[in-house]
Amino acid sequence: MNTRRIVIVLIFLSLLFAGCNEVEVKRLAKPTPAQVEWMDDEIGMFIHFGIETWQDKETDKYPKMEYTQMFDPPNVDTDQWVAAAESMGAKYIVLVAKHPGGFCLWQTDTTEYSIKNSPYKDGKGDIVAELAESCRKRGMKMGIYISPADFSQKTSYGGKSDDAEVQEKYSNIYRQQWTELLSGYGEMMEVWFDGGNVVKLDDIVEKYAPNAMVFQSPIATIRWVGNESGYAPYPAWNSVNSADPIVQAGLSTARHGDPDGDKWLPNEVDCRIRSKWFWNSYNADTLKSVDKLMDMYYNSVGHSSVLLLNIAPDKSGQMPQSDIKRAAEFGAEIKRRFGKSIAETSGEGDIIEITLDKATVIDHAIIMEDITKGERVRQYVIEGLIDGQWKKIAEGISIGHKKIDQFAPVAVDAVRIRVTKSAAKPVIRKLAVYDTSKDVKTETAVVPDKKDVEVKKLAKPTPAQVEWMDDEIGMFICFGIETWQDKNTDKYPKMEYTQMFDPPNVDTDQWVAAAESMGAKYIILVAKHAGGFCLWQTDTTEYSIKNSPYKDGKGDIVAELAKSCRKKGMKLGIYISPADFWKKIGHGGKSNDAEVQEKYSIIYRQQWTELLSGYGEMMEVWFDGGNVVKVDDIVKKYAPNAMVFQSPIATIRWVGNESGYAPYPAWNSVNSADPIVQAGLSTARHGDPDGDKWLPNEVDCRIRSKWFWNSYNADTLKSVDKLMDMYYNSVGHSSVLLLNIAPDKSGQMPQSDIKRAAEFGAEIKRRFGKSIAETSGEGEIIEITLDKATVIDHAIIMEDIIRGERVRQYVIEGLIDGQWKKIAEGISIGHKKIDQFAPVAVDAVRIRVTKSAAKPVIRKLAVYDTSKDVKTEPTVVPGKNSQHEQIAFEWSSNDISTEWSELEFDLSPFIDMPQQYEVVFNQVAGKNTLEFKSVILILNGIEAAGFSEALDKPNTFNVNITATPSRKKDSIRFRVVLKGKGGADSSGNVTITKVKLF
Predict the structure, then answer these.
(1) What is the biggest distance separating any 2 CA atoms in the chain, rounded to whole angstroms?
(2) Do 391 and 384 contact (CB within 8 A), yes or no?
(3) CA geometry: angle at 763 spanning 76 and 747, to 5°?
(4) Secondary structure letter of residue 124 according to DSSP
(5) How many other C-beta atoms are found inside a 10 Å radius of the C-beta of residue 207?
(6) Spatial separation of the C-alpha atoms in residues 111 and 150, rounded to whole Å
(7) Closest CA to 516 of 768, 806, 874
(8) Rounded to two decimals, what is the model's pTM?
(9) Residues 6 or more apart in contact with residue 13 via CB below 8 angstroms
(10) What is the pLDDT of residues 79-108, one digit of tens each?
(11) Strands in 643-780 per DSSP E
């Protein structure tokens, strides 16, 4: 045999096969660097917020210009949105800036159906700008969704119209919308075209967002998974065939994946944390559990796809606490399971192995290919070395960016992946194994430093406590039998006292508006004071509103206030006194009679169950004077996220006085071993910077001298200066201010009190609404350099309290004539410290921490010049002399006929002065509308022609009251002749509003 010839043939064959393999590698689809980075992000947050939020709908199908007036969120907090995204591990946010209805969340020149014609910030608001700024501050990437469909422009899905003229006009509009958003709000990392897109935009995207991922449309770089359930199929191949028409149209889904495809087009898995995309009022119970979210994570990120989880802000402009808490729990569980591996490695070839120091239990493996080389693996097995033999513990087909394999816990001495089929030499970026059965508690990450041991010892707040401290101001409301007694406590309750309670004009909307005007983020209602009278329909006692004349015993103040709070996005809390003099129970819910105690404990538990289970989410529960009745199970079941004031389960504590002042320093932590802390009766004086339990202070105080309204203390109304002094010494001392404003016998808050509350809120905004400059940072010195010498007279400092209260002593210095000079100093900072000093011109300002328990982490350092007389208008609060809308009548289908008929009702309770009023028929149900023939006002039984007329606005009438009304029942009646147009199925309400005079 010719040996030389054989060698030559073998060399030729080896080169031939090597060449074939190389050709195959080159043919594999490969991602761009931007696609690799996007897949490494793994999780994003979707945000749906718009007109639909107010409509309880998923799509604004029939947009009308008047709908723009719905959009008026009182407390938009895009920083909160970003923080929620961070908490669940998201690396980017996609904001729905325009949904198919067409309403635009930015200041656009392309349409009037936009935020500029809404009441939000008087038409000057821009949600896109606010979120972009929040993202920039926290290093969060941002993307934009602008629906190609636009019902306000008469275009359907994909931006299509059958009318050529409409199509041309809309194409120009849509191009301009993308130009505005991509050129004016900073870098966008993703652009979303829902349902594809027929409008040419590649030039605009290429010009302004060349590195952005594009979802759907002919220029797509990522694709829809094909469902909204949070699941990618397996295998979910990352490549597709570019010749496929559905791929070319940008409408391919996961089912179009082909391991031999020539185009890299990975899957994005868009899904919701609740059952709907937009927030609505009826699906809170659909909030997904952590287990469900983890299942979605395994089947999206764990199937080589990216998870885009939607969390929707509510009408307040903030995400519901339940949702952001769940997002944080989801992120924490991902970290708990996969934050730290038992062991990991990487490598090339068919077998990649990890040898362990000893037999170790594992129950998960994560494998990642180096996708820059293409998706090469076609089949693999994971094997564990058990008793000296390799045994299969999992297997799969594709890996791609990431594959998560879960299996029964097994003790192994080594673990390996063995690739049994591949398109080219496997390149494994990561093989890692985990034991997730261990209940490893994870803390919020801190930056390691020389004091790391000390850091771990610091007390730290829960996410709910952080949010509560960010609220800063709440409103207390005391209203009950005491209001009619001119007393602060109904010490000797009698059944006949229930007849006192008959307020003629309860206006809980006014209460909420007053809270908003002073900047309060929550309200605490005293639903039962120590006397025992209950403001809700309770089964536990006869000494309650059900035996009062108010609404013939059918009234429910808790329900009315809860509804008003929901409408405006105001958080609500409840005070039920443990003491109950009607039930012969003393402070703390105690009785010396064992039988009475046992009976009352059942009653008190039932009262909390009724209120926490029947009136929506409660953010705070108040036990005044402590509480000996066990209710922790009830609170945990119905209000697990609520702050608890006093009692053994307290999460916040009483400051120790009712004057509006927290001491300084007011440390946020206490010693959990202290018996007074365990009893839930600690105050600010129990604060200890080295304590092991975070228990911040609530500063409860009054705008007048008494908690309940009375007839003789109007002259005790606190001045704005006094209220600001209280603000400095509560919020400015790292505490939360709870200011009481009491409704009077009418059921409304006195105009003097709500005017003062609005002035207080306006003054806070005037002084601290806009800083001269601000910054954040870590370390002992945080500095702000100013453009020129600038006068300042205040500084606000905030620690990042999620890392504990670290600062123990600091000085604020200004750069004056080239030298750093002290202008203020302090001990603690905590959530917020406000320092006031004589006006001084500085070129720069800095905080220098001279003593700390760990590396200082400053969330905010801001400086202000409050000496400038910047005029701000106090918010107008609805009241007796305002334009507040009230429901005068409700109709049902029984009141309507298909023939002309009369409908008449009493307006006298709602008309208190000579003025113009608007009466509006608001249809809330039924497909058939109302048609009106005539309207007449009846004054003291006499028809008054010309005193009422129809207005141009639909279903709206003017009422002209020229003489002082008597308020006597039926003295002013409203009669209308109407019918159902096409049917009699409508129902709704009639509202009356004072016409705005200026």
Answers:
(1) 129
(2) yes
(3) 75
(4) T
(5) 11
(6) 11
(7) 874
(8) 0.49
(9) none
(10) 999 999 999 999 999 999 999 999 999 999
(11) 643-645, 653-654, 669-670, 693-694, 697-702, 736-740, 773-778
Top mean-pLDDT range of 87-91, 193-197, 981-985: 87-91
The pair phi, psi for residue 386, each rounded to 5°, is: -125, 120
Q: Give the DSSP letter of residue 944.
A: E
φ, ψ at 687 (rounded to 5°): -60, 140
Q: Tell whether the model's pLDDT for residue 873 goes beyond 50.
A: no
Q: What is the distance between the alpha carbons of residues 346 and 371, in angstroms, rounded to a whole number?
A: 13
What are the structure tokens assigned to 153, written together?
A: 């422009």
**Closest CA relative to residue 32, chosen from 376, 400, 269, 374:** 374
Strands 267-272 and 223-224: parallel
For residue 805, give Cα distances in angstroms to 3, 5, 695. 81, 81, 12
For the chain, give the mean pLDDT: 89
Provide mean pLDDT across the span 649-676.
Answer: 91
Do residues 74 and 316 touch, judged by C-beta distance below 8 A? yes
Q: What is the edge-to-edge ordering of all strands in the sheet holding 92-98? A: 213-215, 190-192, 141-146, 92-98, 43-47, 306-310, 267-272, 223-224
Are 725 and 501 in contact by the 8 Å Cβ rule? The answer is no
Cis preceding-peptide flag for 235 (omega within 30 of 0): yes
Task: State the DSSP H helix or E strand holding residue 347, giving kind and residue range, or none if neither.
Answer: strand 343-348
* 333 confidence band (pLDDT: 50, 70, 90): very high
**351: nearest Cα among 422, 413, 289, 407:** 422
Checking phi first, is residue 990 left (phi over 0); if not, alpha (psi -120 to 50) or beta? beta
Dihedral-angle region of residue 498 (phi above 0 means left; psi in -120 to 50 means alpha; beta otherwise): alpha
Go through the chain and tell me how many residues it has. Answer: 998
CA distance 679 to 589: 13
Q: List beta partners, residue 389.
A: 386
Residue 598's CB is within 10 A of a number of other CB atoms, namely 10
* Confidence band, pLDDT 50/70/90 cuts, at residue 963: low
Strand partners, 260: none
Give the model confidence (pLDDT) of 286-307 as tens digits: 999 999 999 999 999 999 999 9
3-state secondary structure of 947: coil
Mark 608-643 as b/e (b = at least 16 C-beta within 10 Å). bbbbbeebebbbbbbbbbbbbbebeebbeebbebbb
Of 448, 442, 456, 470, nearest in space to 778 by CA: 448
Q: What's the token pair of residue 482? A: 């005491």
Phi-psi region of 9 (alpha: psi -120 to 50; beta: other; left: phi over 0): alpha
pLDDT at 8 over 60: no
Peptide bond into 665 cis (omega under 30): yes
Mention every residue, 6+ apart, whose C-beta is less than 8 A from residue 176.
108, 109, 110
SS3 545: helix
Q: How far apart are CA 912 and CA 878, in angstroms?
A: 14
User: Alpha-carbon Rg of the chain, whole angstroms?
Assistant: 33
Take residue 228 and report the two structure tokens written for it: 């909204």
Confidence (pLDDT) at 915: 65
Q: Which of 247, 337, 276, 274 is nearest to 301 (CA)?
A: 337
Summarised one tens digit per residue, pLDDT across range 242-254 is: 998 888 888 888 8
Which amino acid appears at position 432 of this protein?
A: A
**What is the helix (H) or strand (E) element at residue 753, kind and residue range?**
helix 751-768
- pLDDT tens, position by position, 907-932: 888 887 666 788 999 888 888 889 99
d(CA 484, CA 469): 35
- Tokens representing 936 are 């007449």
Tokens 């309060």 found at:
520
Strand 263-264 versus strand 239-240 pairing type: antiparallel
Q: What is the SS3 assignment for 553-598? A: HCCCHHHHHHHHHHHHCCEEEEEECCCEHHHCEEHHHECCCHHHHH
Over range 268-274, report the average pLDDT.
Answer: 95
